[in-house]
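Predict both folds.
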Amino acid sequence: MSEPAHDNSTDDVGSVPAFFREHSEFLDSLTQVADSAGNVESWTQDSAPASEQELLRGLCKTLDRYQEQPTCLDPYLERIIGQLMAVVREYVYAYHDSMDRQLPIPISTTRLDGVFELLYTLCKVRGYKIILQFFPHAVADVEPVFATLWRYSADLGTTGWPARYVLLIWLSLLAMVPFDIESIDSGIVEQPMIKDVDSNTTQPLIDRWITQGKLYLTRSGCEMEGAAVMLARLLSRKDAAARQPQFIEWAAREISDAARPAITGGSSGGLQIESVLRINGALRVLCHLFSAMDSAESLAPQIPRLLDIFQLDAFGQNAVTRKLVAKAVQRLALLMLPAAPVAASRVHARPSVRANLDNYAAPVSASVEGPTSAGEDPAPDTEIPEDVECFVGILLQKLHDKDTIVRWSAAKGIGRVSERLPLALAREIVSAVGGILREETLVVDKGTIDVSMTTEHSWHGALLCLAELSRRGMLHPRALREVVPWVVRGLTYEIQRGDYSVGANVRDAACYVMWSLARIPNPSSRQVFAEMSTEMATALISVAVFDRESNVRRAASAAFQEHVGRQSAFPHGIAVLQLADFFSVGIMRNAYVVTSRKVAEFEEYRHPLLHHLCSVTIYHWDLRTRELAVKALRELAPLSPAYVRASLLPGIVANVSSPFLAVRHGAITATGAIAEAISGELLANTDAVKLVTAVADRVPARYIEDFGASLTLAALASYMGNLSRAKWCAGGDDTQRRFFGLFEMALTTCKDVDGIVHDFTAFVDAYGLTSEQHSCVEEHTRVARSGTSCQSFVLAMGALSGQRELDLLSSAVSNGATVEIRRNAAAALGQLCARSRASGNLSATWEQSAVAALSRGLEDRSVDNRGDVGSWVRKQSLQSLAGVFGSDCSVLQRLLSRDADLAVRLLGQVLHSMTEKIDKLRAAAGRLLELLLCEQRVDRDSDSDIDQALDSTLEQLRQLILIHSSHSSDFSWADPEAAFARIVPALSVSDKRLRRPLFEGLVLTGSTEPLGKFAVSAVAAYAETLPETGATVEDGAQPEWGVDGIVAELTRLLLTDRRTSKLINPALSVADQLVEQGALLAAAPVSWIPLYRATQRVAFKLRAPHRLELCLKLYSSLALMSEELAGLAVGSLLAHMAHPVLRIRQTAADHLFAVVCIHGAIDADSDSDDIGRILAETEWVQDSASVKDARARLTALVRRHLPQSQD
């Protein structure tokens, strides 16, 4: 086959390749494999060459990527399979010929395992039916392939199964050759090669073929499937027809014998795996055989026994077995039924679009039953065997099975069987399937169907079956009118079981039924669809936007699309479909809030969507679904306020006292949402006002005190917040006290109080608080315990405004008992400032106090078993500060005038936060820094009371940080590499009060992984841009910032109190990394001695192994900077080889070996070999006399070459 003319470009649709993109490389590799595997001389080897195996693994991996788009391979299959089968065919012929010649070295059965595995992969990806089309199938191939399979059957181990599978399916193709099997039987194959068979027995080829197939029917995996296909095709031949009854008798006996332990009760735990494999193999071959046979006449004697076998209870433990039973039953029933001609009522749509349009445009007869009358039944008098009724009964029973694969197989079987039955019997089956939906259901008032007592398995199976019947045109108009209401009920089927629900598969199957109804080929159904189009359309669109499961929403959208495209009966079909397409309904929030609002613009869908929301979705068991439903209700209610007030609101309010928590919570929150969304409509109606305002009183006290109280109180808080925002200030002081009491209970009981505090803020704005209530809130924050009540009320204080609240929150930011209290205090402080500024009550003094308190929050470094919990406080403080500075562009001006030290300290803390290892925290700090430097206005007049030097420093920061990389439009402070590269140049700022916090943050982050590499790399790159020399740090003068400044800062950090400082270890690590990278080579030699002395001070009398190892590592790095440092470092390393901690001795020896013997930091002349030998051969982790002697000899050798000052 010539290769299709494709170029190497890719025509992708999304992420799915439009064709076989790797075809060139694949075919080149395949040619190499064929050349290597086709080497006849290599067939005596046990395995393929390594290069061939590598190529085969790559080819299989390439094919696996096309598992979901296998048709992309179709243009190349003939060439691929042709090359592989040419090798395999030559191989099997070579083995067949060798049986006469008796070669001294036999052909190996494992040499072509890789080629067979590649062929199996092709079958797995594309399907064996397609792959077999390109297999050779000459008559001469039969015996060689059979002989090769016979040889592979000698060892049925865990390996070689791909080869056996390929040979089996190849034989299944060869079994269809149009020649008598006896005419090609040469008798060359010897019987003793098969295990457990009498070697003295002589059988014809076809019998040996059957025996060989039976051998594989008990094998697990694909070998069983290959053997079943092979046997079915072989036994369906005319020259094998006489063997069919005998084989079916054997299969029935095999099933009975394997199932006997479970039938007789001898196996309490169910069937053993060996028995299950025997049963599945026999059933699988029966399925294929019944499908391949032309008539059931030869099966008449076996049908009663097969019927008994299909009804055995022993199959209940294995889903695959039950599925095979369903498949065998339906195929046997089809075999017993005549292939009746297609009736006019079942004819599919014509291939011409114009003919279809003309057909649908034709008037419908007055009697919609006309096209399906008995007069058009193609075979009304056909005699149906009685056994078919039993088989249909078995399939109907399988619709109740607990496994989906069984129900699905049974549903397809019923659809296929019904096609061949007379219309009267087919209608009985439709009625029986519909009866399954009516089982254990209760039709209550107004036609509502209660399904709480039903099982989801039965409904799922029945709906699948209805879909199959519908696709085949078996639902006549009267049946449609009966079935559609039940299918519509199935679209909302859901039963709660504990903390989860069942029914998603039922809803999905109902969408499938709706989809199949659109494809009914019977034109007489048009009038039924015209009558029920609005009901079906609104039901589908409600599920498409309001179902919890994305697959169900998409299935409903697909069904809606099918009806729009085929029936054209849905109102505004195309316009609605464009709004609720596959992608729009895929995201739950978008479907609920956005898509539903757009669809509700159409009047036909508005009320059904609102009704679905208020009767189903707001009472859903899932909290997130209820919350989204309430948001959707808030969007949809203004579109039809009168309908919501008159028809929906009374039913919702009636459920606020429901004993079911989900129903109660949904009703309360929905009432509040409606009260806010259509407040104008409700306030104009006295009855509506009474309904809404009485909600809090209608909730029994036990529901806000017992189990579930937190959720009920949260719902009441949402309800009260909605009323407050809508200015429902009815009821006076009594209502205000009642609402405050509920808010107090909610803040005390609930854990997640962010939404409650938001609603409490609205309540305070609408009703205000009395002095006693102010004191109550403050008292809850002073409770001497660290519970959720205290932290909740601290957060709620942000809704207040006053000096007492400001002082309390300012103290709680740094002195709160728990990190949650400190975090909430920071958040509340920001809210208090925002509210005070909005009301005009925020003075400069309050502003300064709040900034000072939040500045203290940036220093919270608390750590517990949850990790760096102090980051919660720091992040919230940064966000609150951003709110303070973002709401007024002159805050920094006032702060610099009143307390310049506070402003500088805050800037230093923000710069320090810019180096945090937490991305979100660093992003919050970046936002605040941009506010301070870009959006805050600072007066630069000469008469301003702001220090000009400080003003210059701010301008310098602005130039270094922001303008430095202003061209980066996609820059994000959350990106560590980009953030560190931008912030590091700020080290050049002249004010050390800003430089030092930034450098300390870089050092802290530089010692951690994985962000440390970005920080150190940024500092190293920045150091290359600094001046090569700088003033010394010993003369007391202010040094000019340069590389010497970096060394001086590292020295300063090492000289901090080693008992309390958390910067010493990071400083040692970062200093070592910078020295190793050569970033500090430009520093003046005199600046290195203070760093060494500081390191020596840290290591003095130190027993902490980790810190001491860092010191030793830094010694070895400093030794390479100068001869003087080399002598000092070597002396220190020698001293530590006598350290009490044995681990430190070994570490010091390793570093000393690197310094002296590898890098040659000191000139040891001829002693270097002796020094290296002593360091390498001595076990320094031992404390023995030999080690002490080695240390003494090593010290003498090394000190001989040290400078005199180090001797």
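Second protein follows, with its predicted structure tokens after the sequence.
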Amino acid sequence: MAADKKEYPKEPRKLFAYDEVAPKPATEPPLPISDVARNHVPNPYINSNITHEKIAAIRAKATNPSKPNIDFAQPSDTYPSSFPHFVRGRDSAREYITSLFTSRIAIYDGAMGTMIQNYAKRNRLEEEEYRGDRFANWKCSMKGNNDQLSITQPHIIQGIYKEYLEVGGSDLIGTNTFSSTTIAMADYEMEDYAYELNYEGARLARQACDEVTAKDPSKPRFVVGAIGPTNRTGSISPSVEDPSARNVTFDELVEAYFEQTVGLMDGGADILMVETIFDTLNAKAALYAVGEYLEMTGLDIPVFVSGTLVDQSGRTLSGQTGEAFYASIRHAKPMCVGLNCALGAKHMTPFVEKLANCVECFLHVYSNAGLPNAMGGYDETPEDMAEQNKVFFENGWLNMVGGCCGSTPPHIKAIREMSESYAPRKLPDVGRPKMWLSGLEDLVVDDVHNHLGLPFLNVGERCNISGSIRFKKLMMAGDYATAMDIAKKQVEDGAHVIDINVDDGMLDGLAAMQKFVKIAVTEPEVSKVPFMLDASKFEIVMAGLKWCQGKCIVNSISLKVGEELFKEQATLLRKHGCAVVVMAFDEEGQAATAEEKVRICKRSYDILVNEVRFPPEDIVFDPNVLTIGTGMEEHANYGVDFINATKTIKEICPYVKISGGISNLSFGFRGVMKIRESIHSVFLQHAILQSGMDVGIVNAHEMLALSEVEPDIRVASENLVFNKTDNATDVMLELTQRERARREAFKKGGGAAEVKQTPWRTLNVTKRLEHSLINGISQFIDKDVEEARQQAEKPLHIIEGPLMGGMNIIGDLFGAGKMFLPQVIKSARVMKKAVAYLIPFMEKEKREKLIAEGKDPDEFDENDDSNFAGKVLMATVKGDVHDIGKNIVAVVLGCNNYKVYDIGVMCSCEKILEKAKEYNVDVIGLSGLITPSLDEMVDVAKEMSKGGFKQPLLIGGATTSKMHTAVKVSPNYFTVEHPVIHVLDASRSVTVVSSLLGETKEDYVTDIMEEYDEVSTLIWNCVFLSH
């Protein structure tokens, strides 16, 4: 943020009972969610009992010359039953590691590559030795493939293992499998040998550990299956020209790491270590693969994770700080986390200290033996390296220590001897859980204050197609570079998180989300903050999630899809380690009242926490910020309902966050930002400080502190937000018009607006009716309608003439931002009053006509709809629970003498068509807010065509557009008899329906058809040219 921005004092956070609980001493690192981990169930080491089809398939294609032994259980009486002894199959490795790491600083091994190089200096180790007899005729060079030596020169590798165990005194040794993935082995065309390489690397280590343990059973030795980073990176583009290019996908990494995990465990590994992480996305893929293996096998295997900070910036190669790296992987519940490689101990010191201050589990370091010299070697002696590590021991930062590049068994021995005088790091106390996000930098949401001093997370809304017209145009044009500028500006203006939403019916959301994220993560000024991946289709957020190395938020899931799918989606998100926004929707629809908001959120919470085991601190409830000030009485309490529900949800759902799309609140006053942000300021001040709201999707640049809201607007905003007065909407409308007039005058160079008033009551009756409609004045409507009736041939002509003329003007003004939603509603009610005045005259006319035809007018059919201008069926399509806009359209049409059949939300195609036939409607209207609704509308259009329907089809809702209607919906149903029309907003609905049911229908539809043909032609030409 700019240095000249005003500083605001930090407001205190609203506290709840669970915030007051004192931290407790930790007895072990945070546990994974599985029952076997929580209950410390020992690994039986009988891998032949593991028969999952995916694991069996990997074994079936293994290249081992003979069937390998994969069972490593020991008789329970092999060694005594108390610590420090350990027997495989009898004892829990998790329990043992906890006892070991809390009793002394454990010793890891040193460099494998250095030892192989040292061996080569003393012995012949050339291409022939790397190949061995088995690969003598291999098709490419093999020298340098150190992992292959586990197969071709096993005595060398086992000898190194033993040196670290016997000379170095290592408690744990890493397997010679750093590059044993299909991805890394592609360099040697040995992808098919991945399982065997891992199996042999682990088996040799298992054999060495068992031999050394047998000599001193009081010091058990453990095999750590080493999982390296591969030679590809998920977060960094290999192309200078294309920042969205990648040479590996998340799913490819997962597959490679899964096969490696199977081989390591079948070879007898006790622990798995994801190590030398230069790109956290790769590590997340590895941890996901390990998690899948543990779920399939039902085993509890301790997992260690080791990152690599590449230089003195203290960041990984992909740009993350150490703290951000930890925040990104902590969902996997590693037993031990730390740093290795790239730097010597001396240069690691500040970064180790930072990790020691934040990690909740055990901490390790295995540094290089200093920095490499000019020849690429390492000069630190064992004594030097031990001295450099001393600072870690003195400060009590470590639970395990070892060495990386340049270190040898004598180095490890010296470090071990140095460490023996010091106590291990104490696990930090366990306090209240907090949401901990990350981009390139970490962010603890519960500790955040925004630029106005509020304890509130600003989620920037401008990289959302529905939140920014400019962003939408850039995305539709494929201008991702300029779109990044919008993201950067949001961060500069105070956004803590960037919301990314590319939902649009005319955009390939799956491709657009992935491309945007892949580019964004390469932009440091954007990706330093976490992302909120926002989409109506779950597959789109999942696709984006797989390109995020940091811990992000997914927006959103809800119970509207049913409990089973809800749990399935939540489980997948939990495995990926993201936080999640949960909307207050269920199978019945959207929660509007406080009671419904609380009920749905509590039900969702119980399922997530108790059944899915989703971390409660990573749940963000969105109880639906709905529009107030619409002029509809049922909307007036929406602000109060949200604020009250927020407090209750926070009380009964410990640790959750509450969020909302703040711009929804003031949508009725769009176009006058000062009024909108004043309403938001009043709303947020109370929602945050008094009820505990934590998060909101906002335009940070436009936000106002409460102290900056003008006194009269503040009073009006409080009356509106808290529904204090009956005329709150009218007062706010007057202030909105005042502010707009001021703005217009300022644009013209004037300091204040000076409007010349014309006495409108002196105008002709047509103009007076228009004026009453536009300004929502009902005082003179009966008198003016009567005057107009006296001049008209029929009462209906008044409706079709001056009244409809006024509604057309209202539509134009609303579309131009010169009228506001509550004004449209007021105008509709004036229209309703005018129509109500005319109905008795229309009924009299109808009665006289029946008498003239020789019919009895008293034989009246209650179902006779002839007094209505037409019948319209309204429905929110399947999968969508939003209905506020649809309800407003129903009110406007109803006020204009149309009979509206509103059949609700989540309406299947079958129900829509069934009810259309039952009610014999003249027009069918489909509504939807989310992108999947667009596909549903296309399906309805297809089925209407198949079913021989003749009614015009109206398409409306926030995510719909003229372009999508013309290109995707219209071709499936449009004819002159039954057109497909996009209705921009409620103010246009009357004009559209009256045109479709009036005498000018053919001309109107022909114009629409020509317009849609032009749009379609333009789009398809653009598609053709782009290819």
